[in-house]
Amino acid sequence: MRWSKTFIHTLRQDPADAEVISHRLMTRASLISKVAPGVYNYLPLGLRSLRKLEFIVRQEMARAGSSEIVMPAVNPAELWKESGRWFEYGPELLRLKDRHDHEFCIGPTHEEVITDIVRRLVTSYRQLPVNMYQIQTKFRDEIRPRFGLMRGREFIMKDAYTFHADAEDLDVAYRAMEAAYRRVFERCALSYTQVEADSGNIGGSESHEFMVLADTGEDAILACAACGYGANVEKALSKDPNPAPPYPLDATQQPQSIETPEMKTIDQVADFLGVAPAHLIKTLIFESYEEFVAVLMRGDQEVNEVRLKNALDCTHLQLATEEKIEKITGGPQGFSGPVGLEGVRILADPTVMALEHAATGANVKDTHLVGVVPGRDFKPDVVVDLRLAREGEPCGVCGKPLAEKRGIEVGHIFKLGTKYSSKMDCNFLDNEGQEHPMIMGCYGLGIGRTVAAAIEQNHDEHGVIWPIPLAPYEVVLAVLNSDKPEVVAESEKLYTALLEAGIDVIYDDRPERPGVKFKDMDLIGFPVRIVVGKRSLENGCVEFSLRRDGEKSIVALSDVVIHTQEILSNLKAESTVEEKG
Ligand code: ATP
Ligand code: MG
Q1: Which ligand has the minimum distance to the alpha carbon of residue 151?
Q2: If you measure from the C-alpha of residue 446 to the centroid of ligand 1, how many angstroms do you get, rounded to a whole number?
Q3: For residues 39-64, average pLDDT
Q4: Nearest-10 crossing angle of helices 167-187, 44-63
Q5: Residue 1: CB atoms within 10 Å
Q6: Which atom of ligand 1 is the closest one to the Cα of 142?
């Protein structure tokens, strides 16, 4: 492609709303331009990078046994009502009506539509498994669209779905997808980590996220360098870092009331009573769909609300208001406790039940109880791990300290189970003629977000440094003295020779000053640069350099094609995924 013929308009200034480097550079390097918040044009250079990633994804999906389809962006409301998501999804779902007043939404993901395809055409275990994917434009009305393509409202996703007769078969597909994702990110030369993710409250048994490590990542990961364990902080398990010290007060036959006027914080109360914060049982009253629950945590620990939601099997949860707390416990906020508490379900973290003696609120104004024995003085309805894991705590697997890292979630794979198939009657007959709902998996990968994440990881103060597999063009050929006919003539010859050799090259044929050309090449970040200038031509040579390290070499005109091929094959070898097995 000739630069003069394509559409590249680089900017010297950062866009005002760009908070992260990929957003700044994608705009300045003329990869994207903004239409509305979270809605972008993909300009020629940006589209080439997206298409290159899509090509890699298509190859790996084929290898994993998935067939490509395309489903409509516009989905009829009926399907979404069948699954129940029409009512649950909330304002992220963009809803619209046609001229006949029929309701639709723009798909934020496509479980409903694919389940409808499969239930109409597949009826027997003999026709399973089914494995299909699409690369398609999604819409989610994100509350805070930002970071350019990383959190858009309209964005391109690869979404795959599988349907199975049993859990073992789902596992086979899941492992193949997991391998496909790893290969995709490795082929893009990204530094990423695969972590355990929360599989939510929908009966899914396993879920993993693929995180590109970057300081600007919106997700927190806890990872163990010693054993390789890694999990989203919502899912991470750590060992109890500081089991409670011996209880300093005398053991009693029953809990004793002590006045604690105006003392509401854990530290105030612990200090006053002469116990450690770990001896206090913090009692939090939550409300979920009009049901109230009491959650018991040790005073020195925090509750993980995602775990709590899973334990309660709900998607919506909030702390109860002061007024409601008073009504339920009989005492004001800050003085709640499990002893004698009735009419609400009580959930306790295991570290609470491990306390021999404890102190807690008495459900009476300005009063706490000491000498409380979990199990004797109160019995929770459920004991479940609700503790939020934190950096530095011992890894739940090997006990070495966990480190916190930031990541950009580029992919998410999920064992869905029968959430959609049972609601939407997507059933099959087994070999005995019995009907069962199909078991499903779903697998998402953000195309735009992955390209943006590659830039977050590969740039310097001058611009993008593309990993070769995602570069809009692998090579740029630039003519420096476009006012000199002999230089132009030689450049034209080289351009033709490179094209004929099948090299992915853009030819900067513009009548611009060298300074402008170098700045643009740095900004856009083509991996290999060939510069044709008057002075080196006099010696029958051109200058090669790599964007990555700026290393220059002088190459004879007759060797340009072969030298380019060699450089490219070296660069590509670095990002080739080794075949295993
Ligand atoms: P997040 O927690 O970042 O909102 P999600 O859990 O909603 O992501 P999924 O529903 O699992 O994401 O979607 C699959 C993939 O689609 C994500 O891993 C991500 O790469 C991409 N993706 C999701 N939301 C967006 C968005 N708003 N803009 C760009 N890509 C997105
Ligand atoms: Mg989201």
Answers
A1: 1
A2: 6
A3: 98
A4: 140
A5: 17
A6: 27
Could you tell me the distance, in angstroms and rounded to a whole number, from the CA of residue 284 to the centre of ligand 2? 28
Ligand 1 pocket: which of 151, 159, 412 to mutate (most atoms <8 Å of CB)?
Answer: 412
Q: Which atom of ligand 1 is nearest to the CA of 140?
A: 27
User: Vertex 531, ends 526 and 532: CA angle to 5°?
Assistant: 150
For residues 519, 523, 525, 526, the Cα torsion angle rounded to the nearest 10 degrees is -50
Q: What is the pLDDT of residues 547-559, one digit of tens each?
A: 999 999 999 999 9
For residue 162, with 0-12 CB atoms within 10 Å meaning exposed, 13-18 middle and 19 or more buried, which class applies?
A: buried
Q: Residue 281's closest CA among 329, 338, 356, 327?
A: 338
Q: Angle 44-63/447-457 helices, nearest 10 degrees? A: 110
DSSP state letter for 66: -
Q: Which residues have C-beta within 8 Å of that of residue 283, sequence separation ≥ 6?
A: 294, 295, 296, 329, 336, 337, 338, 341, 360, 361
Residue 215 class from Cβ within 10 Å (0-12 exposed, 13-18 middle, 19+ buried)? exposed
Helix segments in 157-238, DSSP class H: 167-187
Give the span between the Cα atoms of 302 and 211, in whole angstroms: 25
What is the distance in A from the centroid of ligand 2 to the CA of 138?
12
Burial annotation 105-143 (CB, 10 A radius, 16+ → b, else e): bbbbbbbbbbbbbbbeebeebeebbbbbbbbbebbbbbe
The answer on pLDDT for 90 being more than 50 is: yes
Interval 136-192: pLDDT, tens: 999 999 999 999 999 999 999 999 999 999 999 999 999 999 999 999 999 999 999
The answer to whether the CB of 110 is under 6 A from ligand 1 is: no
Residue 320 tokens read as 């109860």
* Collapsed DSSP state (helix, strand, coil) of residue 515: helix
Q: Is 152 in the pocket of ligand 1 (CB under 6 A)?
A: yes
Q: What percent of the chain has pLDDT over 90?
A: 83
Helix, strand or coil, per DSSP, at residue 348: strand
Pocket flag, ligand 1, residue 158 (CB < 6 Å): no
pTM for this entry? 0.87
Q: Which residue has the tokens 């009580």?
A: 346
At residue 562 the predicted structure's pLDDT band, cuts being 50, 70 and 90, is very high
With tokens 């990383």, the residue in question is 150
The pair of three-digit structure tokens given for residue 285, joined into one six-digit string: 């009253």
Mutate-to-test residue for ligand 1 from 111, 157, 188, 192, highest number of ligand atoms within 8 A of CB:
157
Using the mean position of ligand 2's atoms as its centre, give its distance from the Cα of residue 122 in Å: 31
> Confidence class of residue 205 from pLDDT cuts 50, 70 and 90?
confident
Between vectors from CA 89 to CA 84 and to CA 94, what angle results, nearest 5°?
115
- The three-class DSSP label of residue 192 is strand
Buried b (16+ CB within 10 A) or exposed e, 71-92: beeebbbebbebbebbeebeee
**Strands 382-383 vs 367-372: parallel, antiparallel or unpaired:** unpaired
Q: Compute the distance from residue 183 Cα to the ligand 2 centre, in Å.
A: 24
Mean pLDDT over residues 331-358, rounded? 94
Assign 92 a pLDDT band (cuts: 50, 70, 90). very high
Predicted pLDDT of residue 581: 38
pLDDT at position 346 is 96
Cβ neighbour number for residue 574 with a 10 Å cutoff: 9
